[in-house]
Amino acid sequence: MRVKVLAEAAYRVVGVMSKDSCPALDFLTQGEKSTEAVRAGLLRMLVEVANRGLDGVPSSWHHEADKRIGIYEFIKGPLRLFFFKGSNGDIAVCTSGVRKSGNKADKAAVSKAVDLKLAYTQALANKTYEVVEDENE
User: Fold this and answer.
1) The overall pTM is greater than 0.85
2) Residue 136: what pLDDT?
3) d(CA 9, CA 51)
């Protein structure tokens, strides 16, 4: 499994790579003009999480989307960025983002995050985990 560093300071926030792109980074940097400021706010939140850790930022910034499996979501306006808590120096491993459309977490996004969490755990165990600085590496 390959991950891309999204923010790094005292802690590291990464996004799972899919071939040569990072869906979480694509979600944060591309999209509708109407969500541009919200997406920029999510990026700033990731920088703060990298600086202060998940316990050092307001609890209103994130919450559990699936308590059984440990899938969380960063919250900014109508947007949600899904993640799970990592290891090996990663505080948050971002998987994908969605525009919230109902009261519950997006089931497809949560399911995808669960699958990626399992793949992440296996990659660490199999020593096939790789951090890339540039998504073209």
Assistant:
1) yes
2) 52
3) 5
